[in-house]
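tool_call: predict_structure(chain=1)
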Amino acid sequence: MEVSTTVPAVVTALRAGLGPLVEEVTGRLRAEVPSYAGVPPDLLALRVARGLDRGLTVVHRLCGGQDADDTGPGSPERGAAGVARAGTPGPAGSPPPVLPIGSPGSIGDTLPVDDVIRAHRIGVDVVWSRFSREMTARRAHPEELLAIGEQVWSWAAAATVRIVRRRAARNARPTGGRPAGPRLEEYVRMLLLVPVDAAAGGWADGSTAAAMPFRARAAVGPTDTDRVIGLLRPWTASGPGGAPMVTTVDGDVAGLLAARPAELLRGLVLGLGAAARPCDVAEEFGSASLALRVAVAFGLTGVYTGDELGLRTAVVQRPDLGERLVRQRLAPLRELGEDGAQLEEAVAAFLAHGLRLEAAARTLFVHPNTLRNRLRRFEALSGTSLRDPADLAEIWWALAHGRVHGPDRAPVSPDVPGR
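tool_result:
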């Protein structure tokens, strides 16, 4: 089919007005498909936004409007979490993609299959109706519009068959555990993990109060999900019916908090993001996940934001710089074998106790004068001054790098106890 010069402009216009499209589809779903009325509004709106974004990409590609490898900022390839690529038609005979308004593995898992198909058709119908009006307004030739329509509705029919086949295959498998369905848990996981495209983000602005995304695990041993949820319950944001907005991500407990925990929670390690609206939650959840990673790497317990972890975050993110500091500050000691390890242990204890000589000496079971002599030798061999703040920062970073990244690890933690 000849490449249309009008289709790209129409797709761009529809993406710019995606909010009204989402409202139209969700309104029709709730009015025409009763089973969808029980789906949480935000979850349904997000699924519809992603489905329409993918549908527009399918329309564009069916019309030969873009190369599969064109993924520039302004291309239809972009979208929530890059889902648009999944909408690209495959080789001849391969199953076509499905709009995820009610697709298997989503809110359609426990809805009647007839309703899922109907919801899919409603989405396609809305997109096509708007698309046709935009093409007509741009004086597209009727034959061009007819050819595009044949492509789109053929794709829609094939996608319907795929919905039925996937549902049949899923129903044939044995099930166990909690049944799937339009759970609040799925909505929370989607908020945390799926960045909302700017063109589709308006649907969530103000639909839910801002909340702080978090990610937590047990400080020691495996994470007991129910226990962690119970500990955090007083501060967890609530969804419909008062249910906590929590889920699990790769074995960690994750979700949204209405307020920062007022207790120390020493049995947990919890990374916390800034309060965010639903359309911004995924970005802040990334910050919370990084804070958790850093806190775990340094053996910390309690609640931490990225800002509170300061240079520790840089140690985790910049191993290249840490390796360079190790070579500059610690390599001369390590050439001395056990004697050098003793000096490294001495300076690590000195830093860990806030530069308090006597406290560090007690930890090492040596006289303060012995520790003082070791510190002087360390300065001479490493070419640093323990009275220079810049040198202290580099030494701390080198020691912390050894602890976090290994395989050579500092004998004593360079962290201040209690942090």
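agent: The chain has a mean pLDDT of 74. Proceeding to next step.
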